[in-house]
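Technical annex, item 7. During the second reporting period the consortium partners agreed on a shared format for inverse folding records so that results from different sites could be compared directly. Each record opens with the tokenized structure and is followed by the designed sequence. A conforming record, contributed by the partner at site C, is shown below for reference.
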């Protein structure tokens, strides 16, 4: 199994190399050269299996010969042991033929744990075999950083430094980054905003002396291993609802397009998915683009669903690559145009995108109203991101086809917005109820490349 870049100018890599590399050298994103197929019988055979066994069967073909079956089973068992629900990704019924896929039972209460916990173990296993160690540096507006710190803490071949904008993440998110006591994980509160955090991370990757000296690696949402780990819950939930014998639809609260792109891969593998609906908040570049208005950057407007506040959706490049018939030259040209503001999608590609994706947007007022209405209708408390999904799903669904809306975070991760919407302050789950009592360890740091690089050099394990 080989992985190729969406821009066509980087070397082909194995699964393990693509995972450890992250971004391709030509600036593109790695995609599988061929998408493995699961037959009707293969999918039917998933019925009744554990989440772990489903992960093994769905992901195995993507790994090639990078890990043995025993190694991979062991990695999966470790990755999903820390979830607080025996089904890891349980389904709940919201209304007739409308279901909520609860992806917030991992250690940091957001769906990013599914991929991050798995790649933490994959990294550790690969690096230990190679006798290497790496330094992971990432920027976060909240959820990715907490998931990464939780997934990599205590692993012996990895140091992790997460930059977040000082004073601009929620208290739950900050505490999830600052309370783990393991010496190999480091929360850095940067004096700047999220864009500046991202810019400094980019600067470090472009400083080749530093990059090679500390063996920099990235685990942001463009990492292909993260995308593939998310394919699994499309299969597990669809099979629970009767696939492959009937079609299932999905609605996905979307920001960087990683989660919904995993749904596209599931469909290409053979899962009978009817609709894949992209749900955006007021930062609706994806909805406008899928609606035929071109892909043009605007200003990011902060919202009550901060994990979906994006200007440019990094994984959308992968969707474009397939919509343009795997034409990497065309993708490279679009990305050049994006650097100077945006681009129009060709008629053919727009047609291909509209055969795969539907889309809708949800305003701040609609998000709050949906939290309140769902609580009254079924007693379920949604986080703002999940509420956007439920609202957009309601507008797009065909009542005859089961609709699964992805609940991407636990309401307790965004308590202020939930309280505003319905008056209830959602309590933290029991396994985390002492979060406010744990002691914090965080370094406040200047928005300055030299200061950051010195700090990292000094604190990596030798
Ligand atoms: C990251 C995130 C999203 C967006 O997912 P993408 O894969 O970036 O589209 C949605 N909701 C929550 C809670 C998230 O943390």
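Designed sequence (site C submission):
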């Amino acid at each position: 199994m080989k992985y190729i870049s969406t821009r066509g100018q980087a070397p082909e890599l194995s699964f393990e190399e693509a995972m450890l590399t992250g971004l391709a050298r030509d600036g593109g994103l790695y995609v599988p050269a061929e998408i493995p197929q699961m037959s009707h019988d293969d999918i039917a055979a998933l019925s009744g299996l554990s989440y772990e066994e489903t992960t093994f069967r769905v992901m195995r073909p993507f790994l090639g010969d990078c890990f043995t079956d025993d190694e991979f089973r062991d990695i999966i068992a470790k990755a999903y042991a820390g979830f607080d629900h025996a089904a890891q990704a349980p389904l709940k019924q919201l209304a007739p033929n409308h279901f909520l896929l609860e992806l917030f039972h991992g250690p940091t209460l957001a769906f990013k744990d599914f991929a991050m916990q798995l790649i933490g173990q994959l990294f550790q296993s690969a690096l230990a075999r190679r006798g290497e160690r790496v330094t992971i540096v990432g920027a976060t507006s909240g959820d990715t950083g907490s998931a990464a710190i939780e997934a990599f803490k205590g692993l012996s071949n990895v140091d992790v430094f997460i930059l977040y904008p000082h004073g601009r993440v929620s208290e739950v998110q900050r505490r999830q980054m600052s309370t783990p006591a393991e010496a190999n994980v480091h929360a850095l509160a940067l004096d700047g905003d999220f864009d500046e955090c991202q810019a400094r991370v980019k600067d470090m990757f472009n400083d080749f002396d530093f990059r090679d000296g500390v063996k920099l690696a990235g685990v942001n949402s463009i990492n292909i291993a993260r995308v593939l780990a998310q394919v699994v819950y499309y299969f597990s939930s669809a099979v629970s609802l009767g696939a492959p014998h009937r079609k299932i639809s999905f609605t996905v609260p979307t920001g960087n397009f990683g989660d919904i792109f995993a749904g596209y891969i599931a469909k290409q593998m053979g899962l009978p998915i009817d609709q894949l609906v992209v749900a955006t908040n007021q930062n609706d570049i994806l909805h406008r683009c899928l609606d035929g208005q071109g892909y043009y950057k605007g200003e990011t407007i902060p919202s009550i669903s901060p994990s979906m506040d994006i200007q440019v959706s990094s994984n959308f490049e992968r969707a474009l690559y397939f919509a343009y018939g795997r034409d990497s030259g065309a993708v490279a040209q679009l990305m050049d145009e994006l650097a100077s503001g945006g681009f129009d999608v060709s008629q053919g590609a727009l047609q291909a995108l509209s055969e795969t994706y539907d889309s809708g947007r949800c305003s701040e007022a609609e998000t709050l109203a949906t939290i309140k209405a769902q609580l009254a209708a079924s007693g379920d408390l949604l986080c703002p991101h999940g509420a956007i999904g439920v609202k957009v799903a309601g507008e797009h669904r065909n009542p005859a086809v089961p609709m699964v809306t992805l609940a991407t975070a636990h309401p307790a991760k965004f308590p202020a917005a939930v309280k505003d919407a319905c008056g209830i302050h959602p309590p933290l789950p029991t396994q985390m109820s002492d979060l406010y009592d744990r002691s914090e360890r965080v370094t406040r740091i200047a928005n300055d490349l030299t200061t950051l690089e010195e700090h990292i050099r000094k604190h990596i394990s030798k």
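The pocket of pyridoxal-5'-phosphate is lined by residues 110, 112, 143, 221, 253-259, 307-308, 385, 408-409 (CB under 6 Å). The mean pLDDT is 95. All partners now use this format for quarterly exchanges.
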